[in-house]
Amino acid sequence: MKKLIAEFIGTFALVLFGCGAAVLAGAEIGQLGIALAFGLAIVAMAYGIGPISGCHVNPAVSFGVFLAGRMEMKDMLGYWVAQTFGAIAAAALLMFLLSNSAGGFAGNLGQNGWGPGYLGEYSMVAALVFEIVMTFLFVVVILGVTGPGGDAALAGLAIGLTLAVIHITGIQVTGVSVNPARSIGPALLAGGAAIGQLWLFIVAPLIGAALAGFAVKMKLIAAD
């Protein structure tokens, strides 16, 4: 139960800080600031809850850890539930804050997307490829730095900086998911196009994580 509570809190913090930076302060801090908010949220949570649950705060990460042989399926499924509800709770808080602002809630909770009218207006194929590749790289870093031979003391910093770089690179493409829970929370409450496009931000990160997990399981990129 402690692990599930930690994953709920960690995912709540990630979505609140990351998506919150985008919708509450995006105009002031720009995309670099948003990217750093996501990355630094992971750094903070890695050291805050990492000793309890490993700080996955991401169903794709848990899936990669499971496929790498470092987690039982029942534990992974529990993590998925806790992470998803954490993301929904954070999105609900953001909606409440925006609803009580002068501008009101205008439907933006930092949800992911693609196509006409969304940031750089990239195609679905571009969004799919981006999310698969970036999740693969993200999970490779996580499995590497937390595995045998990794530097546990610097793991949180390495993981957080990787997520920040991914956001710096790809906010214009999809808003960056690499995390199904991060996408589910805002999409469920924002509704509209975000719901119709949500499938990609569940499927693509899981594919990328699966590729990373199998690569580590098969010792293709694991330390000796």
Question: Helix and strand layout, with pairings?
Answer:
Layout: H1 2-53, H2 59-67, H3 73-99, H4 124-146, H5 155-174, H6 180-190, H7 193-217
Helix pairs in contact: 1-3, 1-5, 1-6, 2-3, 2-4, 2-7, 3-6, 4-5, 4-7, 6-7
Describe the structure.
The longest helix is centred in the first third of the chain and has 52 residues, at 2-53. The protein is mainly α and 224 residues long. The protein is built from 7 helices and no strands. The chain has a single domain (2-102, 110-217), classed as Up-down Bundle (Glycerol uptake facilitator protein), CATH 1.20.1080.10. The chain is 75% helix and 0% strand. Helix 1 crosses helix 6 (180-190). The chain is globular, with a radius of gyration of 16 Å.
Distance from first to last alpha carbon? 34 Å
- The overall average pLDDT, rounded, is 96
Approximate strand percentage: under 5%
Which ranges are low-confidence, i.e. pLDDT below 50, for 5 or more consecutive residues? none
Total domains, how many? Answer: 1
Question: From the alpha-carbon coordinates, what is the Rg to the nearest angstrom?
Answer: 16 Å
The geometry reads as: globular
Order of helices and strands: HHHHHHH
- State the total count of DSSP E strands: 0
> Could you say which structural class the secondary elements and strand pairing correspond to?
mainly alpha
What's the story with the biggest beta sheet? Answer: none
Helices, by number, come to 7
CATH class category label: Mainly Alpha
User: Share of helix among residues?
Assistant: over 70%
Any idea what the CATH superfamily is called? Glycerol uptake facilitator protein
Please name the CATH topology.
Glycerol uptake facilitator protein
Using the 3D structure, state the CATH architecture.
Answer: Up-down Bundle
Organism: Maricaulis salignorans
InterPro entries: Aquaporin-like (IPR023271), Aquaporin_transptr (IPR034294), MIP (IPR000425), MIP_CS (IPR022357)
Protein name: Aquaporin Z
Transmembrane segments: 37-67, 79-102, 122-145, 152-174, 194-216
